[in-house]
Write a structure and sequence with these properties.
Layout: H1 2-13, H2 18-41, H3 47-71, H4 76-99, H5 114-121, H6 123-143, E1 150-151, E2 156-157, H7 158-197
């Protein structure tokens, strides 16, 4: 809930106080690395908590991308693609995991996709990728207002340097989202095939499109 509060605080100050907004946003993102540990330590793990964790991440990132679309209209198509990929891949991935009895999008079957297995089961990799991705968007936001402290020798501002350093992480994170999407789609298709073999029509009880 502290993450939710910090996220809302960041959104409120984004038009007027870039440093305060970015600090609140990044602190909320950093706390994402510890809320799971806290839940396990206090024996407060729940399905609702798992969903809230993902929703907080997705909503915060989407709102920041909306802001970036306004600040950098020349890149709006790329930001829109990022939003589409982020939401669709995580939603479909979580739905496929839930269908197979998993309680969280971070619980990956060790026999599944090797990229996702490393991504979700290696906490260092997971933190690095998520932090780097959020850092790129946050620094893009700050860069619109200021360069940041000058970096000796390089002759550029700190915020611009962090944008360039975190850009490759953001690109790789997007590629992992594509893997999310493809893997989850295959899992859903496999579930449909299994239902048909059992004589269960996938459309039974469902509203068709």
């Amino acid at each position: 809930y502290t993450r939710v509060f910090l996220g809302l605080l960041a959104l409120y100050f984004m038009p007027t106080s870039p440093l305060l907004a970015c600090s609140s946003y990044m602190l909320s993102s950093i706390l994402d690395a510890f809320d799971g540990y806290a839940a396990r330590l206090l024996n407060q793990c729940s399905k609702f908590g798992a969903i809230l964790d993902m929703l907080t991440d997705r909503c915060a990132t989407m709102c920041l991308l909306v802001n970036l679309s306004l600040l950098y209209p020349q890149y709006i198509f790329l930001f829109q693609l990022s939003m589409i990929l982020d939401i669709s891949s995580h939603w479909l991935h979580l739905h496929s995991i839930t269908m197979t009895g998993g309680g969280s999008h971070k619980k990956i079957d060790l026999s599944g996709n090797p990229i996702l297995r490393v991504y979700y089961n290696n906490m260092v990799v997971l933190f690095f990728m998520c932090a780097g991705n959020e850092l790129f968007y946050a620094m893009m936001y700050l860069l619109n207002f200021m360069e940041g402290p000058a970096v000796p020798v390089l002759g550029i501002g700190l915020f611009r340097l962090l944008v360039w350093l975190s850009l490759p992480v953001c690109v790789v994170k997007s590629a992992i989202s594509v893997v999310h999407l493809v893997t989850a789609s295959r899992n859903m298709a496999a579930s449909d095939r299994a239902d048909r073999r059992r004589g269960v029509a996938p459309c039974d009880g469902e509203k068709g499109d």
